[in-house]
Arginine biosynthesis bifunctional protein ArgJ
Amino acid sequence: MSGSVSPLAPKTFVDMPALRGVRMATAAAGIKYKNRTDVLMMVFDEPAAVAGVFTRSKCPSAPVDFCRQNLGGGVARAVVVNSGNANAFTGKKGREATELTAKSAAKAVGCAESEVFLASTGVIGEPLDATKFAGVLDDLATAGTEAFWFEAAKAIMTTDTYPKVATRSAEIGGVKVTINGIAKGAGMIAPDMATMLSFVVTDADIAPAALQALLSAGVGPTFNSVTVDSDTSTSDTLMLFATGAAAADGQQRVTDASDAKLDAFRTALNDLLRDLALQVVRDGEGARKMVAVTVEGAENDAAAKRIALSIANSPLVKTAVAGEDANWGRVVMAVGKAGEMAERDRLAIWFGDVRVAVDGERDPTYSEAAATAVMKAQDIPIRVEIGLGSGRATVFTCDLTKEYVEINGDYRS
Amino acid sequence: MSGSVSPLAPKTFVDMPALRGVRMATAAAGIKYKNRTDVLMMVFDEPAAVAGVFTRSKCPSAPVDFCRQNLGGGVARAVVVNSGNANAFTGKKGREATELTAKSAAKAVGCAESEVFLASTGVIGEPLDATKFAGVLDDLATAGTEAFWFEAAKAIMTTDTYPKVATRSAEIGGVKVTINGIAKGAGMIAPDMATMLSFVVTDADIAPAALQALLSAGVGPTFNSVTVDSDTSTSDTLMLFATGAAAADGQQRVTDASDAKLDAFRTALNDLLRDLALQVVRDGEGARKMVAVTVEGAENDAAAKRIALSIANSPLVKTAVAGEDANWGRVVMAVGKAGEMAERDRLAIWFGDVRVAVDGERDPTYSEAAATAVMKAQDIPIRVEIGLGSGRATVFTCDLTKEYVEINGDYRS
């Protein structure tokens, strides 16, 4: 496999502003390799509100279990992220490793272990030697700086071909607040190198319950609407922290997610989550094209999303996209297999603006040339009208290429 | 793509015996190409009992709709199978084509249209010109012979690299009966060239309801337990016919599927269905290895099957098999994403006879060399013990190779 950057990578990277209340630094702890940056520490000098969403896997990693347990406290002082080892399927040793890491971080920062959050990415099934963190975290706790976002995004990359950063701002009650986020993932989701991790921080002052409500609502059409290969990691982690530093500018703490003062913030947050999620898809393993699958007219939104995911996860649809083949019959197939209500004679399908099928038949004005022209582009919109109701969803994916097979057939050996 | 035969093809083909009561012949009707065999006709000179199972797609082809409608009558006199056009997503024109084909067949054979069954495979969305069948079926109705099974299997091949045939015999009440079957499919299941079709005929005398019960029960662990790419065709069709010719030898008609006289027949039928289903997997597009995924100790059999399918459909598991990589972490991932009850700390995983993980951790005696040796073979058994109940299932799949991407990226163009 080549080390080249995805052709779908951003042409330029945004300048990431410093964000008050969080400092970050990286180090080489020697988790898997010597002299390779493999640990990122985020420190909140004042307690930050915290929210999180995690993998739905029934076999989650030890750090996912650990974060879920600490989330109830609602307060974060430190986050430790390592690469090289996912600490997944590591049993009792895995739990001991998270405890030891949290203990080291808590000592370094001067906080409770319940205020520490952890994420790990790398090979699974290998015991993680957490003693390697001890001295390193002491140094990182004091070394952190506020303007370290781009470096932090680079530090958590594994098979990613570019760092993923995004920033937005909004006003809450007339006070400007900032939201910064980073993500890693180059396959939504493999159990080893391509786990999806994302950390988003705002200087807004928002209570934990409200923050969780915002994040849980925001993840549906963003991180939970992207798929590279339908495979779900043991370690997927998305966390949102609010340092509350904007209180110094007079921002009044918001405790209720439905407070109208949060409207602009919600919009900015959702936009940032979408930005990061799409960056993950655009760095999908072997990806050459991005596909936006929109399903309209389904029985309800949930049905629309299941149909859209059926299309987006279909190997036959994804290989057709890779081959620039306007093979709309495979879209019909994927609608049919989704198991949701659909009537052949009401279906219509568009590639870009070209309607290829309508009323259960090929479009009478179908032009192979026009449809193929759409498939030559880097971004391919596929739209399906079910014609039964008003359910609607959009899911983002990439094509399935020989490079995907190569990357994933050769990775571990 | 090469035209070479799958490395998993049978080394030799079984001699298919003649089967009393059914005659077959093929012809070139010019459905898509000129001078290419594209239509197979089966004729039952006496009314045969009929049973069928079909795709679960919500967008089935016109022939699937047609067969379902005629199945209630329980009687078959003729079957017409064509390649070159799937008559799927063809709307009203599609229904008109099935009606015209049935009319031509009924006239040729001298039976009712409700005694005709149809199956089509090929490109979808193209109207099928059924007028091309008219004269051809008249000839085929008289030209058929009883010893035509291997030729019939070859005639329905599309992207298949070898014909799929199987035969078994059993006794019913002391009278020997024979079961012959053919299948096509080289991807469980694409909407165009790789649709799965299978036709099984016995000379036993079994009533339609009993025949349907046998087939519905038999399909679960056989044709419904194989997957190449998780994609479901609009046209999947498996039909079972009983000519009743064995009545001449004194076999008494069986009307109840639970009749003990059918025990040996049931075993033989299920064995034949499994044989044909595995031949389909072994001809999976781009396949180099076959994988048998067995899940034991799940909450129940249905949960075991869902977990086994999650493993068998995972692109990351299938690419690891292609790469001969004993990447058991991806099996853990696939167990976790299945959504069924599973406890990490109770899981155990075997590749062949090599236990690679136990009690939620890598096996203490894990040998990479031993696990890798298993992956070098052509047939890869993967076994997962969930440790929660007694649910059990086995699912068969193949690896995911660059050739799969090549075949399906280039097919239509």
